[in-house]
Amino acid sequence: MQYLNDAGGRFKLPLKNDAGKTVATLLWGDPLQVLERSGERVKVRARRRVGWLPAGAVGDTGLLEVYVIDVGQGDGVLVRTPHDDAWHLIDAGIRAADQMTKKGAANFVRWKFIDDLQRDRVSLKNAIVTHPDADHYGGMIDLLGGALPDGRTFAVEVERFWHSGIGRFRDGAKLGALRADTGVTPLPQPGFGIKPQAKFIVELLDGKTHFKSPERAFAGDFADLARLVGTVPRRVGRLAHTDGWLPGYAPAAGAAAIRVLGPVAEKLAGGGVGLRDLGSDSVTRNGHSVVLRVDYGAARILLTGDLNTVSQQLLLALHPAAEFAADVAKGCHHGSDDIDLRFVRACAARATVVSSGDNEDYAHPRPRVLGASARYGRESRAADGTTMPPLLYSTELARSVGLDFAAHVRTVAEPKQPYKPDQLEADFDASPAGRYRRLSWLPIATDLVYGLVNVRTDGRRILCASMKEGSSDFDLQVFDAGVDPG
Length: 486
Fold this sequence. Notes:
Strand order of the largest sheet: 15-12-11-10-9-8-28-29-30
Radius of gyration: 24 Å
Distance between the termini: 38 Å
Shape: globular
Largest sheet: 9 strands, mixed
Helix content: 10-25%
Number of domains: 2
CATH topology of the largest domain: Metallo-beta-lactamase, Chain A
Structural class: alpha+beta
Number of helices: 10
């Protein structure tokens, strides 16, 4: 496999067919299959298209790739580590059948492996569910099951499945049994209000047996996830800050490293470890998200799950603030304003990406969060040497829908009990507003641009890109990596 290089600082190139027509726009790092060489041109297959590129634009080195998938209200992030050409999925949004578009993270992951990379199966080194909320694990049911709502199936293999340790139980303590402890070791960073006395979840899930043969019944579709987790991945385990690094991804020369910063598993005076009760069940399971930082060269990318105010304070009480400094950060909890501004300052991201959806009840992303991300983000040096302000990306804002109206309505079948025209008009006029709508007034979705946000880096420069509306081109920004956390 070969890859598109930086194209002389342009970072994207048109792929043109034999007639010279652009059939796709390729980004820095896109995989290429070289089919033919002709002088200063090469014919390649890329993005399911065949066309020509300048020979000098083809290189042998891939990039660290991060795809923030448009899953609506939820999270789904696909990562490629370049040194081992391995793929990692962190969360997968809600189930595709529950999406307005009937497409979810599994659709994108299937496309990436089967169509784009021309492989015979989806193959993940690591699949991670940051916490047990359906807008993070629902799509993992599709993926592990190898099936899409439209009936398509695909082969899938997963080396390791990781989770936070918190389950969703049908009866009793919904997240796991609690135990009070009054003697946990105080955390090293003072000033965040974390007390040594608290209740802790001590009934924590871990390996495959906990999912395959649980001691207590799981609730709802978490039970569906558990059945698949108990059979599909080769290994299953719980992640916590005590791991330090994702197994197999500790720092090594020339390789990407994956730091595990949360959840915070505290050693209890009564023995064992537990996850602190942060308040309500919702706050607790969100707050104990798996928090990862992907490091490659000078670049740092922070993946924060659904952290909230109290969990951010817990993390800041445990780790030096410099651990959270990042070039690119995924905005916590879809842009919720349940945040501690000290955490936003610690991240000081050059680019923040928020994953959120339409038609949800939370009005994400919130103005306070967007403002704080810009206010406390770092400036960067763009590829052309100019100073670039902090960047804000949103999958919801990057998404667009083309609408039109029916110019002609054609009858395809007669109803078994046809309405008389005068009765139809009377029913229409008497109906509550919005119950009936004339077909000629009904907007029809004619085009959909998904709000996928691409992040790619060679360890020195970082590209952030999203698709332009009304074309196959990309809007992109490129800046120097390096957070200098001090």
